[in-house]
UniProtKB/TrEMBL annotation:
Any single Gene Ontology cellular-component annotation: membrane
PANTHER family xref list: CALCOFLUOR WHITE HYPERSENSITIVE PROTEIN PRECURSOR, PGAP2-INTERACTING PROTEIN
InterPro entries for this protein: Endo/exonu/phosph_ase_sf, Endo/exonuclease/phosphatase, GPI-anchor_lipid_remodeler
Name by which UniProt lists this protein: Endonuclease/exonuclease/phosphatase family metal-dependent hydrolase
GO biological process: GPI anchor biosynthetic process
Signal peptide positions on this chain: none
Domain Endonuclease/exonuclease/phosphatase: 4-220
GO molecular function: endonuclease activity; exonuclease activity
Keywords: Endonuclease, Exonuclease, Hydrolase, Nuclease
Native source species: Hansschlegelia beijingensis
Keyword hit for Nuclease: yes
Length: 240
């Protein structure tokens, strides 16, 4: 199953134009079964969603899973999930994450025809101390849930490595959050976007989707991976 994480920067491209249609075409290039998007709504006011669900379905074959309480919103603190087709099982939990800036995460259980799995989609803060708190909050939430193949993905805003990284709390369970440069899109240097999974072996073929259109559509490049739901699931608590 092909999955992706993509910060669409409110559909504002590197040329300054707000072009939701380009985001849709990048998603069509990727062809994911599931994608986590960040910055999908206007930030202020009524938080109206920036993408057209009809165009998403027609052009990219993707269905927007409702997350927002706002009538015309798409995301929870800007986080949205898109899937190819209708899930046979879907349950969601929305979290408010600690930190100075308002941040949130979506925890969803899905079955897209290959078995149930869990998705944790998040957009971490700009301050390291916020990212540390947010990472610990997500890890605690994960440990409280029943064991299930889990992918954690999003713009985690972390470029530091090893002990300086706010993401190292995930390593004992999820393994290393392999850093692939995804920002800025025109000349990517910083690995701000990540996809990690539990149990180990769940995530394969991790790559940055770097095409001429992707370099123009947003200031981030999408991160893509393949997940193998046959990966063996043990007891989360005994593995911690």
């Amino acid at each position: 199953m092909r999955v992706a994480s993509y910060n669409i920067h409110k559909c504002r491209g590197t040329d300054g134009q707000v072009r939701p249609d380009r985001i849709v075409q990048v998603l069509k290039e990727i062809g994911p079964q599931l994608v986590a998007l960040q910055e999908v709504d206007h930030r202020f006011g009524q938080r109206i969603g920036l993408l057209d669900p009809v165009e998403l379905k027609r052009e990219a074959g993707l269905h927007l899973l409702a997350q927002s309480d706002a009538p015309e919103g798409h995301g929870w603190h800007g986080n949205a999930l898109l899937v190819a087709g209708e899930p046979t099982h879907y349950r969601r939990l929305r979290l408010r994450l600690p930190g100075i800036e308002p941040r949130g995460a979506i925890i969803s259980e899905l079955d897209l025809g290959e078995g149930q799995f869990r998705v944790i989609a998040a957009h971490f803060g700009l301050l390291r101390r916020s990212r540390v708190s947010q990472a610990n909050a997500l890890l605690a939430a994960f440990k409280d849930l029943p064991p299930m193949p889990t992918i954690l993905l999003g713009d985690l805003n972390e470029w530091r490595r090893k002990r300086r990284s706010a993401l190292n709390v995930f390593e004992p369970l999820f393994g290393e959050a392999h850093p692939l440069p995804s920002f800025p899109s025109r000349r990517p240097i910083f690995p701000l976007d990540r996809i990690i999974g539990w149990p180990r072996g769940l995530i394969n073929d991790l790559a940055v989707h770097n095409t001429p259109l992707a370099r123009k559509a947003s200031d981030h490049l999408p991160l893509v991976a393949r997940i193998d739901l046959s990966a063996r699931v043990g007891d989360v608590r005994s593995a911690a």
